[in-house]
């Protein structure tokens, strides 16, 4: 017979999120036919029921039901006892700032952060011009008006203003699939290729524990050969695009090349098949002191491909994604890119996005890669038929968007790949997208070392002095960069006028970017 079952109540943190303001959830457990029926009330809209059979540490919890959309769960009688708790699930991009590593912020100029901030480590917040209007919580400590405790010698003391008293020593927020593991390496894995046998087209990729990998959940998977464009054409047969759908036998389907070129200078003639919206490109990154070999996605050409009704057009894949037994319920709205070019002391594999002023559809677009990600020009500033909205907090003319990578660098529309000096002059640029990326942390063993802080989480390579960079989104810094690892600071860029804001669209669950990760809030007994 099942022994007495233990219900564990979740502690709701005071975040300004849609689920705040309701009563604490309650679990009720009733024995029935040598089993038990677990029911609950007042569960947050996004939550899961979790169970374990042993409360000896380390405790391993597993998801057994979606508490936000069900009302009861019948416990198995295969175990002599089970213990339950409700865990609140919070979309990562509903935070203005979420740091999974130590967070430093010293903007030097006035900055107001209006929405919740959370850090799974500790926070250093300086500068008297810095104001937090909502909650600021940390698992570790929060210090202000002192030299940076995470670096050696970096100091700009000032007292930030907290309209809501900040909280320290809070329970950590972790990703549901990874349990209570909040380590940077664990979180970074969501962008990496899955372990052997756990990625598509293997059936194991469909297991919930492997759905944490973006590779296994994106609509399209793009890759290239290890040679990049070394000695070869920008366009090449070395680029491959796959369509992913778990409702289709085989799960992965090779996307037919939609462009063909014939080289008449070679006898016999050679035919080169390639994709209109994906190319290879090279340019120089002065921060990394490396030549970047990037897989480049032209969003405007991608949009055109998606509405092309030919055997090699994207309309076929959009139809498969939205209609009939293969439907995933949305247009193609996510791309995973893996660049096979090796990382060396001279070259950096990466992904670059261009012509992204307008995204494909109202479903939005998420682009993810384990490598550095570059965005050239304005991004997500207009909807179909609308006029661009630039340099403002107005995001009415945007679609849900996310950029995920090892590092995120913004190149203005004035950028030229042939640039041979460290200070090209940019023009004003607007980026509307949630971001998930890594940073190069401060190093206390290097005098004056500083991560660049929240104010420099977007990396820059131009002389932005006096030029405005507008950013509307959500900042999620989750791990230490593994590819773009040179420290912040130097003569390669100038500080922009920052017009940064949280995108309030993300408070609406229907307007979150595709594949938005979540974190779980609970108190472990």
Short note summarizing the structure:
This protein is mostly beta strands. The protein has three helices and 36 strands.
- Supply Rg: 24 Å
Total of helices: 3
**Level of helix content?**
under 10%
Low-confidence stretches: 1-22
Q: Looking across the biggest beta sheet, what order are the strands in? A: 14-11-8-34-31-28-26-24-17-18-19
State the total count of DSSP E strands. Answer: 36
N-end to C-end Cα span: 24 Å
Structural class: mainly beta
Shape, please?
A: globular
Largest sheet: 11 strands, mixed
Mean pLDDT: 84
- Sheet-strand content, in percent, reads 25-35%
Keywords:
525 residues, eleven-stranded mixed beta sheet, six-stranded mixed beta sheet, globular
Characterize the structure shown:
This protein has 525 residues and is mainly beta. The two termini are 24 Å apart. The chain is 4% helix and 32% strand. The radius of gyration is 24 Å and the shape is globular. It has 3 helices and 36 strands.
Give me the secondary-structure topology.
Blueprint: E1 6-8, E2 26-32, E3 35-41, E4 47-52, E5 62-65, E6 72-75, E7 83-91, E8 97-99, E9 103-105, E10 111-113, E11 117-119, E12 123-125, E13 130-132, E14 136-138, E15 142-143, E16 161-162, H1 184-188, E17 220-223, E18 240-244, E19 252-254, E20 259-263, E21 270-274, E22 278-285, E23 290-298, H2 299-306, H3 315-322, E24 334-338, E25 347-354, E26 365-368, E27 373-376, E28 401-404, E29 408-411, E30 429-432, E31 434-439, E32 458-460, E33 468-473, E34 475-480, E35 497-502, E36 518-521
Parallel strand pairs: 1-7, 8-11, 8-34, 9-12, 10-13, 11-14, 12-15, 13-16, 17-24, 23-25, 24-26, 25-27, 26-28, 27-29, 28-31, 29-32, 30-33, 31-34, 33-35
Antiparallel strand pairs: 2-3, 3-6, 4-5, 4-7, 7-36, 17-18, 18-19, 20-21, 22-23
């Amino acid at each position: 017979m099942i022994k007495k079952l233990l219900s564990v109540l979740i502690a709701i943190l005071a975040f300004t999120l849609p689920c705040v303001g309701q009563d604490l959830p309650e679990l009720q457990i009733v024995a029935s036919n040598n089993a038990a029926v677990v029911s609950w009330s007042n569960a947050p809209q996004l939550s899961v029921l979790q169970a374990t059979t042993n409360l000896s540490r380390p405790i391993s919890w597993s998801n057994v039901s979606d508490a936000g959309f069900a009302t009861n769960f019948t416990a198995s009688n295969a175990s002599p006892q089970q213990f339950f708790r409700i865990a609140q699930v919070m979309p990562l991009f509903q935070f203005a700032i979420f740091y999974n590593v130590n967070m430093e912020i010293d903007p030097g100029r006035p900055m107001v952060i209006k929405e919740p901030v959370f850090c799974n480590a500790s926070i250093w917040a300086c500068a008297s011009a810095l104001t937090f209007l909502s909650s600021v919580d940390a698992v570790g400590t929060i210090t202000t008006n002192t030299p940076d405790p995470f670096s050696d010698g970096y100091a700009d003391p000032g007292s930030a203003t907290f309209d809501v008293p900040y909280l320290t020593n809070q329970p950590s927020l972790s990703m549901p699939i990874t349990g209570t593991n909040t380590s940077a390496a664990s979180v970074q894995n969501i962008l990496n290729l899955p372990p052997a046998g756990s990625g598509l087209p293997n059936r194991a990729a469909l297991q919930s524990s492997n759905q944490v990998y973006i590779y296994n959940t994106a609509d399209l998977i793009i890759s290239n050969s290890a040679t990049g464009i070394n000695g070869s054409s920008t366009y090449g047969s070395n680029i491959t695009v796959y369509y992913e759908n778990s409702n289709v036998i085989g799960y992965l389907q090779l996307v037919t090349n939609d462009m063909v070129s014939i080289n008449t200078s070679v006898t016999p003639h050679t035919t080169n098949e390639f994709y209109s919206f994906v190319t290879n490109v090279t340019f120089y990154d002065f921060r990394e002191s490396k030549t970047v070999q990037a897989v480049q996605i032209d969003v405007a050409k991608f949009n055109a491909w998606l509405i092309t009704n030919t055997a090699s057009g994207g309309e076929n894949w959009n139809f498969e994604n939205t209609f009939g037994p293969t439907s995933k319920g949305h247009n193609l709205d996510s791309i995973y890119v893996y660049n096979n070019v090796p990382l060396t002391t001279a070259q950096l594999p990466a992904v670059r996005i261009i012509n992204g002023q307008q995204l494909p559809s109202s479903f939005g677009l998420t682009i993810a890669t384990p490598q550095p990600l570059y965005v050239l020009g304005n991004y997500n500033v207009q909807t179909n038929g609308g006029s661009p909205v630039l340099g403002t907090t107005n995001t009415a003319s945007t679609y849900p968007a996310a950029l995920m990578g090892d590092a995120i660098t913004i190149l203005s529309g004035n950028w030229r790949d042939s640039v041979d000096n460290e200070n090209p002059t940019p023009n004003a640029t607007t980026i509307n997208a949630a971001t998930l990326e890594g940073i190069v942390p401060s190093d206390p063993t290097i005098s004056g070392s500083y991560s660049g802080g929240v104010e420099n989480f977007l990396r820059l390579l131009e002389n932005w002095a006096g030029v405005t960079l507008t950013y509307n989104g959500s900042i999620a810094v989750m791990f230490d960069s593994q590819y773009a690892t040179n420290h912040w600071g130097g003569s390669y860029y100038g500080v922009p006028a920052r017009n940064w804001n949280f995108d309030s669209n993300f408070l609406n669950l229907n307007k979150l970017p595709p594949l938005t990760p979540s974190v779980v809030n609970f108190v472990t007994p």
